[in-house]
Amino acid sequence: MQTANKKPRKAPLEKAGAPRGRKANGVAQQNGEGDAVTLFEVVRLGKSAMQSVVDDWIESYKHDRDMALLDLINFFIQCSGCKGTVRIEMFRNMQNAEIIRKMTEEFDEDSGDYPLTMPGPQWKKFRYNFCEFIGVLIRQCQYSIIYDEYMMDTVISLLTGLSDSQVRAFRHTSTLAAMKLMTALVNVALNLSIHQDNTQRQYEAERNKIVGKRANEKLELLLQKRKELQENQDEIENMMNSIFKGIFVHRYRDAIAEIRAICIEEIGVWMKMYSDAFLNDSYLKYVGWTLHDRQGEVRLKCLKALQNLYTNRELFPKLELFTNRFKDRIVSMTLDKEYDVAVEAIRLVTLILQGSEDALSNEDCENVYHLVYSAHRPVAVAAGEFLHRKLFSRHDPQAEEALAKRRGRNSPNGNLVRMLVLFFLESELHEHAAYLVDSLWESSQELLKDWECMTELLLEEPVQGEEVLSDRQESALIELMVCTIRQAAEAHPPVGRGTGKRVLTAKERKTQIDDKNKLTEHFIMALPMLLSKYQADAEKVANLLQIPTFFDLDVYSAGRMEKHLDALLKQIKFVVEKHTETEVLEACSKTYSILCSEEYTIMNRVDIARSQLIDEMVDRFNHSVEDLLQEGEEADDDDIYNVLSTLKRLTAFHNAHDLTRWDLFGNCYRLLKTGIEQGTMPEQIVVQALQCSHYSILWQLVKITEGSPTKAFMLLCDLLMIFSHQLTTGSREALQPLVFNPDGQLQNELLSFVLDHVFIDQDEENQSMEGDEEDEANKIEALHKRRNLLAAFSKLIIYDIVDMPAAADIFKHYMKYYNDYGDIIKETLSKTRQTDKIQCAKTLILSLQQLFNELIQDQGPNLDRTSSHVSGIKELARRFALTFGLDQIKTREAVATLHKDGIEFAFKYQNPKGMEFPPPNLAFLEVLSEFSSKLLRQDKKTVYVHHSYLEKFLTEQMMERREDVWLPLISYRNSLLTGGDEDRLSVTSGGGSSKAGSVRSKKGRPPLHKKRVDGKDPSTCNEHSCLGSWLMRNDTIQTPGALQTPQLTSTVLRENPRQAAEQMPDQDSEPGSDPQMQMSWLGQQKLEEVNRKDRTGMNYMKARSGGVRRGLMEDDAEPIFEDVMMSSRGQLEDMNEEFEDTMVIDLPPSRNRRERAELRPDFFDSAAMIEDESVSGGFTMPMF
Fold first, then answer.
1. Beta-bridge partners for 30
2. Which residues lie below 8 Å from residue 25, measured CB to CB, with a gap of 6+?
3. Is the pLDDT reported for residue 1101 higher than 90?
4. For the chain, which terminus, N or C, has the lower number of CB atoms within 10 Å?
5. Which residues of 401-438 are buried (b: 16+ CB within 10 A; e: fewer)?
6. Measured in whole angstroms, how far is the alpha carbon of residue 593 from the centre of its chain?
7. What's the whole-model pTM score?
8. Is the pLDDT of residue 34 over 60?
């Protein structure tokens, strides 16, 4: 088997001794290595003119026809995608079937693609070049070579054999070649037929001459020429018969749809090109049969082939029998499941209609009529073209114009408009008038834009010979007229048709502007008259009032047509006073709203008319409400109707207009209150009063939002808190439908608002306050507002209303804005850790990652590790690490998850320069090192030594690197390899025992050499079996539905220290006592540090206001630990066990403590949101 990368064989020209290095457009074109390229490559590249390529091949054929034919045979083989080559020995000694079998073995079995099916513009061009080559080849050979009984016989025989192959590529390529060859031969046969006719006429003309003037030699030459042409004609016909019977008849029903489509497409070309020979039932039947093909691609080719035939009216007589036989099938294809096929079928039916009015029955036409309402626009437009040809095309325009003038009409389209109305009514799809107009828009624009004719039919009395429009016909005409106005003004299809608004071309835009001006100028004068005539008909008025929405309102001022505006406003007022239907009133309200647009100069005139109308309605409403409430249960129907009718009008206007200055809410509230108290208020009045009150509230909200976005934000946060998932707690499951959970987009918008309005620099604040009195009071007030915003958003995070990762954008500002928001941020951190330790840890590391990414974006990948920015991130990480407290057992999984996420982030991206260079985020490991001290010894081993999670990301090259750029990795590895003893002796906690019952030693820590005998330390259990379980666990921990408020030291009940002392056992216990009996070495160290600060803590507590707990939004910025007065080791351990989850960052007191002490926060029920839980009978803390 020949490989795919085999060098192309030398062209026959070179083997036959032809000169090498020919022109660039020759067959034996030289490539860069000096070898001749194949004919296939020349055609594929398409750089040479096909005429020159064929001429060069003809030269080679004349020189050595075997080698030239061999080149042509290999051309067809290679165009099929076969890598094999037919050699001269095979060509001379083997049959076609044997050659094809041999070539079949040369196919690449790994790929099913071949040139005709390969995607891309290159192969699309190749297909065109392939077809062109065959056509040019026959055209250039038509006078000599094709009649040598060798070339054509060889080619046809080869293509016939290939077309019968089981290999799809051979079959497809050879069928295409054969069909194009047949098309070229048909063209040759047509030329021969023309030459024969010309020769015959010359012969007849010469023979009819008198004997003296007759040239016998010329007659003999003409006879000889006619005989030669006839022989050539016979040979061409034999060739065509061989192709048709040997290839077409078998391949038009091939299993591959593409091959069938090729056959049908080409037979259509033959019938159109040489209709005398091919346009007969013997060939048409193949197209008719294929109309039933199961593939839409083939059916589409059939219809397009027939369209080319039906376009020529001269061919209709030859198509009559075919039309009668296959008409039903063609009509049924208008409903084809493939939209492209249905469109072409409708166009074909339209061509049949144009050729013969009698060819289609009424039933056939009706099957196409209803397609104008199709949701698929191309189908509807094609059906609209058919409808226009059948019903709306004027057969004698001059006669109709003369008739219109005799009747006194300006437009001759009156009858056509009537016919359109009748068609619309008979279709019984009245709600689809917009679809009907859109379907006819491209074919019947002149008729649909004849608004003058439509208004004449509506306003003027019918003249002699015209029928009066019925009420139903008038309604239909008005609806159609409004739809045409909308289509002209908007210049895009109605809703439901098309994928969206497309960009108009310059010509379409100009047409749209002209149409809008035309309709505006006409209906400015006609609309008041139409409203006056039909003001009592709700349906007609509702449609007519849509027309002003499409006006160019500048025309009123530019054309000095204010009197027509006054007439329109007068008619609208009459309509409002006459109707109570919601549809009509909303149309009037919308019209006023459009006419009152501030961008137009007519706004003041319209606003005055609107205010007068509303004044009248409000006055009437107030009096009717007073009458109704005074009458009470004795109110009659008139009182109820007066209230209901005016309330309906006001409600409709309140929807689109701000009527708050008329204070409609007061009387609506009175009606509702009376209905609740007495229960006698009619339901319709209650509904309208509720609706009107609803609009009043909405307009007030709009004012609040426009005036102060801060108030809107606070209101939204409160609403989210009220309607959160906690609404259903306490056996209130019935309120579940009221629960609202904000989606991701709303959460992002809330967070963006906080970031934009809370975390702003002092310079920005001063700039925003420029022009105001910049004193301390203003600064404190501005800070107070920002703290309110942050606290409101923090509540949403704490109560799991906003996803916890959103807190990362808050936590990362802790250091920078500690003086302003430190207390709020650390309380948020404390509460979120109580909710979910692991998710809180992931949020902390996410905030550090965000800061790191921002630094990378500002400074680039090569960070200065000694810069203040990097140090700031490390300092923030150190502060975050302190919040995990001393009990490493309880924070074990959270810290491990934090390290896992940090490692993944550090090695997330590879260096584009290669593996020998550090990853871009490697410096983040230096930040992560700040948390290494919070890992237990065995967890450090899990991260680095045993089952190394870190080593999953390290290569041997990374492990050996010692350059400065790798220092973060070295530093992080060292932080994991140190501190093992401290971890082994770290604070332990018995998870199974209650906190109140914790037993502690009275004395100091036990000697370091003293070992446990019976008990096992939890920090050393299952070191190899379950060390990595926390790394592999699922991080999607379920968050508790309602947050349990933790106990703080200020709320703990204290008991007698003697009782606590009595509960402590003597230190001289058994060596195998419970681990809780031992106090850790770290605890002792912490105790000593606390004792050193004891005096400072005592002084600070004296300055505090007492033991009252401060809420989330209070102004305290001091650490929680300093709220506790401690003078004993037992107190330290109690505090460590109870409050390690709420331990906060220990920073110096705020400089702005005095300023924030003056703030008086007014938050949304903060006491209810974060409520202290009283502890009764629990753990006690002695006071000294």
1. 36
2. 47, 48, 49, 52, 53, 56
3. no
4. C
5. eeebeeeebebbbbebbbebbebbbebeeeebbbbbbb
6. 33
7. 0.62
8. no
